[in-house]
């Protein structure tokens, strides 16, 4: 199936641990993103990668680091997890958003991270 | 299967006009509906979220309404400005986790100075 897939779907971990969330897209899209969904369900962009270059880096703690081994993957690594990191994290991908509007914009199903 | 459509696909207006963007969805069993904005080269920015039990939400010059029974939402932008130029998307979510978004194709708005 063509899709944006992210794993795991649920992640429960203790404070202070280091964890990674993986994301893969087989749509041939140029850009991949990580979003954090807050408690009010609003999406806030964290990172964006285009052809292995970071093009957006919002003011997120440097404990969060995106890692892109190739165009089809954008993993999110989080160090020293804190309670406030609990949220749903979404991976997404798109073609050049300006050329195609956002029709090719595809989200992964999300990873619910719970830090205890 | 949920389908979301948006009309118009593109809109160009002079600065200062009030405008309405439309969103329709086929399955009324939604949990919430969100309006997003996307600027060129950037990701999505959430603008307004309406829970299925609500009828409207307001933020500044933006007002979004929801008529779940008819499967429609509108985004009203008052006194448009050139800085409002972007693509506007609506998306519906069928569960509380917000992990199942269905997006519309977007309306590309240009506000001319």
Characterization of the model:
The complex is a heterodimer of chains A (116) and B (113). Helices cover 0% and strands 50% of the residues of chain A. Chain A has strands at 4-7, 10-13, 19-25, 31-37, 43-50, 53-57, 64-67, 75-78, 87-94, 106-107, 111-115. In chain B, strand 9 (86-93) and strand 10 (101-103) form a beta hairpin. In chain B, 0% of the residues lie in helices and 57% in strands. Chain B contains no helices and eleven strands. The chains are: A mainly beta (116), B mainly beta (113). Chains A and B meet through strand 4, strand 5 and strand 9 of A and strand 4, strand 5 and strand 9 of B.
Please give a quick description of this structure.
Chain A is an all-beta fold and 116 residues long. Chain A has strands at residues 4-7, 10-13, 19-25, 31-37, 43-50, 53-57, 64-67, 75-78, 87-94, 106-107, 111-115.
Give the SSE layout.
The complex is a heterodimer of chains A (116) and B (113).
Chain A: E1 4-7, E2 10-13, E3 19-25, E4 31-37, E5 43-50, E6 53-57, E7 64-67, E8 75-78, E9 87-94, E10 106-107, E11 111-115
Chain B: E1 4-7, E2 10-14, E3 19-25, E4 32-38, E5 44-51, E6 56-59, E7 62-67, E8 72-77, E9 86-93, E10 101-103, E11 107-112
Parallel strand pairs in B: 2-11
Antiparallel strand pairs in B: 1-3, 3-8, 4-5, 4-9, 6-7, 7-8, 9-10, 9-11
């Amino acid at each position: 199936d063509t899709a944006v897939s992210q794993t795991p779907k649920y992640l429960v971990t203790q404070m202070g641990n280091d964890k990674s969330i993986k994301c893969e897209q087989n749509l041939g899209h140029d850009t991949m993103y990580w979003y954090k969904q807050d408690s009010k369900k609003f999406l806030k962009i964290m990172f964006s990668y285009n052809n292995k270059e970071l093009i957006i880096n919002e003011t997120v703690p440097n404990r969060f680091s995106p890692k892109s081994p190739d165009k089809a993957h954008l993993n999110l690594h989080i160090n020293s997890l804190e309670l406030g990191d609990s949220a749903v994290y979404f991976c997404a991908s798109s073609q050049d958003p300006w050329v195609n509007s956002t029709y090719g914009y595809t989200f992964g199903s999300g990873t619910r991270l719970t830090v205890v | 299967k949920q389908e979301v459509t948006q009309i118009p696909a593109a809109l160009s207006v002079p600065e200062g006009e009030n405008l309405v963007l439309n969103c329709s969805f086929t399955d009324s069993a939604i949990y919430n509906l969100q309006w997003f904005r996307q600027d060129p080269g950037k990701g999505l920015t959430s603008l307004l979220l309406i829970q299925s039990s609500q009828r409207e939400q307001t933020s500044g010059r933006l007002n979004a309404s929801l008529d779940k029974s008819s499967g429609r939402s509108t985004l009203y932008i008052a006194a448009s400005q050139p800085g409002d130029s972007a693509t506007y998307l609506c998306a519906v979510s069928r569960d509380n986790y917000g992990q199942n978004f269905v997006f519309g194709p977007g309306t590309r708005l240009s506000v001319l100075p």
